[in-house]
Amino acid sequence: MSDTILVTGASGSLGGAIIRHLLDSQGVKPERVIAVTRDPKKLSALAARGVTVRAGDFDEEASLVEAFSGAGTVLIVSTDAVGEPGARLRQHLAAVSAATKASVSRIGYTSMFSPEPGNTVLFAPDHYGTEQAIRESGIAYSIFRNGWYQENLMMSLPAAVGMGQWFTSAGDGRTAYVGRDDLARAIAADLAEAPAGSATYTLSGAEAFTNAEIAAMASEAIGKPITVVNLTDEQLAEGMKAAGVPAPMVPLLVSFDAAARSGVLGTVTDDIEKLTGSKPAPLKAWIAANKAALGG
Ligand SMILES: NC(=O)c1ccc[n+]([C@@H]2O[C@H](COP(=O)([O-])OP(=O)(O)OC[C@H]3O[C@@H](n4cnc5c(N)ncnc54)[C@H](OP(=O)(O)O)[C@@H]3O)[C@@H](O)[C@H]2O)c1
Asked: pLDDT by residue (tens digit) across 4-23?
């Protein structure tokens, strides 16, 4: 049985960090690692380190069967095709089917918190459908239900700092933001030393915060006041449209706030610590490290 570890989305921020942690934190030898991208030229630095780089496109299942051939564990990093309804689930199902055809011994998948029906995030069904397909494949798996990245706050906090106001419909809902690098560290730990059987992890930050608490933390670090303005989903959507957010993005972004309000993004677990032996970096530290970019 092959002991190689294949990572898709290897040119992306998460996939790239997972490979870095496999090699540098876990001490996995480069010859055990396979990196997949649509454009192998992007990964010449990894190839120079001895990592095998293969081409694979989630829109062409045959290319994935070829890319996955001979691999032991295949980590499917969810794609970024969230704009076209149905596209991402189709891509992920092609990847699960390719993993089955290539007879891999283990599948990893980067999912989201509680993707079951009822989660208001518009793309939750992509993750739920992919998880179901993996469970039905009969192949051992590790499903990583990743929390919202701390880095996502770059989409909302700088504008809030600039205006002194943060418009949200999340209410008192909490989000357990987690650094992308901590997710990568935990995922690499599982991939390097796979547990017996299958596993589903919920990878969260060490604490969950309301937007008012995050605004207070950012305000203190940056030295500028931020008032949280609580809106309904409809008011938030109107405000986003008026501010020039592209129309197709508005319902998606509002669904994030609605999910936070429902509490589904606020789960806190110690799965990262269990996998890696250390706690994830606190949100306060991320804000301090990114003070200038946040508008401080
Ligand atoms: N939890 C969160 O808060 C959060 C936030 C943002 C995103 N995400 C999810 O997590 C994933 C990884 O995050 P990230 O920050 O690493 O995203 P990223 O930097 O945008 O990387 C996305 C990767 O997906 C690959 N990809 C896209 N379409 C593909 C296709 N048709 N065939 C093969 N590869 C394809 C790209 O590879 P090539 O271009 O090299 O082919 C790229 O490496 C995202 O794709 C998204 O599903 C989660």
From this structure: 999 999 999 999 999 999 99
- Is 285 inside any structural domain? no
Question: Residue 212: inside a domain, yes or no?
Answer: no
Q: What is the pTM of this model?
A: 0.97
Q: What's the 230 CA to ligand 1 centre distance in angstroms?
A: 31
Dihedral-angle region of residue 112 (phi above 0 means left; psi in -120 to 50 means alpha; beta otherwise) = beta
CATH of the domain at 77: 3.40.50.720
Q: What is the pLDDT of residues 134-189, one digit of tens each?
A: 999 999 999 999 999 999 999 999 999 999 999 999 999 999 999 999 999 999 99
Q: Which residue has the tokens 């293969």?
A: 54
For the CA of 43, the closest atom of ligand 1 is 40
Q: Is 78 in the pocket of ligand 1 (CB under 6 A)?
A: yes
Task: Please tell me the distance between residue 242's alpha carbon and the centre of ligand 1 in angstroms.
Answer: 29
| 13: in domain | yes
Q: Which structural domain, as residue segments, surrounds residue 87?
A: 5-148+178-205+267-280
Total number of domains in the chain: 1
Which ranges of 22-116 would DSSP assign to H, the alpha helix?
A: 44-48, 61-68, 87-101
CB 64 within 8 A of CB 45: no
Q: Edge-to-edge strands of the sheet including 5-7? A: 52-55, 33-37, 5-7, 73-76, 106-112, 140-146, 199-203
Residue 148 in contact with ligand 1 by CB distance below 6 A: yes
Q: Does some domain include residue 242?
A: no
Query: Which alpha helices (DSSP H) does 109-248 contain, by range?
Result: 124-137, 157-163, 180-192, 211-222, 233-242
